[in-house]
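Why do we care about 3D structure at all? Because function follows from shape, and shape follows, mostly, from sequence. That is the central idea of this module. The next example makes it concrete: a single protein chain, its amino acid sequence, and then its structure expressed as tokens.
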Amino acid sequence: MSELLTFGAIYAGVGVIAYYALKFIDYIRTLKDN
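And the structure:
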């Protein structure tokens, strides 16, 4: 069970990082458009 929790924590962490990375990329794109 601990392995599943570890995998879930890693998966959640990667998901959050990817989410903010995409938001940051969109933010840069809006700055370039202006």
